[in-house]
């Protein structure tokens, strides 16, 4: 379970340069839920997701994963805790000079895992995302949707509890988007992974999310089950 309690983020210093990107965010994402955060450009979505994986440190508040506050951990504990968070990106962030196999293996190589274990795990992951026949290819040989499936396989390499998706389908056409969303449903249903996604694409939220929060100017203005939030009273 992922909980944000009164998370604030202020960028910059001084009266003129200060930007209050998050103004007290409260969120609760249950295990096995697909939770969407939707909002216009500049609303604070990226800041929010970066505060969960601690690419940014919140100015105040709590970020709890299974009741552990990430902001109170030592660097060593934090490294361990961050294995539980996988992330995928709009532009996939694959290494172009490395094969698909190597891209997916990278988190495990960096941890110094034994080669045999890496081979087994990467083969399993690529089979899970349906790209086992592409392991010797390079990213440029794949379509956008296939690259995102590689991104998902890589994010799953450390067996995370939570998958963060940053505009994961925004670079894709509608058909490919649908295939990636199907895969995210499979990640939730078969692996029980909790998914937090930020997007400006309303149709994606409607299609795949259980719950949604609407963010405006750094504040959540509405949240709840998708059918409640997006249905006119
Ligand atoms: P979104 O992802 O919804 O487009 P962001 O989280 O990127 O929103 O931005 C929220 C606000 O914070 C915006 O006003 C943006 O200009 C500001 N902001 C984002 N990142 C930084 C930064 N590194 N330094 C200063 N201001 C930032
Ligand atoms: P390097 O970048 O050091 O030359 P490689 O890319 O050849 O290394 O491979 C690193 C490790 O990953 C090796 O143990 C290799 O056997 C394994 N590996 C690479 N590609 C595959 C693959 N398609 N199937 C199974 N194992 C692979």
What do these coordinates show?
- The chain contains eight helices and ten strands.
- It is α/β, with parallel strands linked by helices and about 230 residues long.
- It has helices at about 45-50, 75-80, 100-110, 115-130, 145-155, 175-190, 200-210, 225-230, and strands spanning about 1-10, 20-30, 35-40, 60-65, 70, 85-90, 160-165, 195-200, 210-215, 220-225.
- The strands form two sheets. A six-stranded mixed β-sheet has the order 6-7-8-3-9-10, sandwiched between helices. It has a four-stranded antiparallel β-sheet with strand order 2-1-4-5, covered by helices on one side.
- Helix 3 (about 100-110) crosses helix 4 and helix 3 packs parallel to helix 5 (about 145-155).
- It is about 35% helix and about 25% strand.
- Strand 4 (about 60-65) and strand 5 form a beta hairpin.
- One adenosine-5'-diphosphate (ADP) binds near residues 101, 102, 115 and 119.
- It comes from Heyndrickxia ginsengihumi.
- GO terms for molecular function: ATP binding; ATP hydrolysis activity; transmembrane transporter activity.
Structure at a glance:
35% of the residues lie in helices and 27% in strands.
Features:
alpha/beta, 233 residues, binds adenosine-5'-diphosphate, 4-stranded antiparallel sheet, 6-stranded mixed sheet, 35% helix
């Amino acid at each position: 379970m992922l909980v944000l309690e009164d998370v604030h983020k202020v960028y910059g210093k001084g009266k003129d340069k200060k930007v209050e990107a998050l103004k007290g965010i409260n969120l609760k994402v249950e295990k096995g839920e697909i939770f969407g955060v939707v909002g216009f450009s500049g609303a604070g979505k990226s800041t929010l997701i970066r505060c969960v994986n601690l690419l940014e440190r919140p100015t105040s508040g709590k970020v709890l994963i299974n009741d552990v506050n990430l902001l109170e951990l030592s660097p060593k504990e934090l490294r361990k805790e961050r294995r539980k968070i996988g992330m995928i990106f709009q532009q996939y962030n694959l290494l172009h000079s490395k094969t698909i196999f190597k891209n997916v293996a990278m988190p495990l190589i960096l941890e110094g895992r034994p080669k045999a274990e890496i081979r087994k795990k990467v083969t399993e992951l690529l089979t899970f995302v349906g790209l086992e026949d592409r392991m010797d290819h390079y990213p440029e040989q794949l379509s956008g949707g296939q690259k995102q499936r590689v991104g998902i396989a890589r994010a799953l390499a450390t067996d995370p509890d939570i998958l963060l998706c940053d505009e994961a389908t925004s670079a894709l056409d509608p058909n490919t988007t649908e295939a990636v969303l199907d895969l995210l449903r499979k990640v939730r249903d078969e692996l029980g992974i909790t998914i937090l996604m930020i997007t400006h694409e309303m149709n994606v939220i409607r299609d795949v999310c259980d719950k949604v929060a609407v963010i405006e100017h750094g504040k959540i203005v509405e949240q709840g089950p998708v059918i409640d939030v997006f249905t006119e009273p």
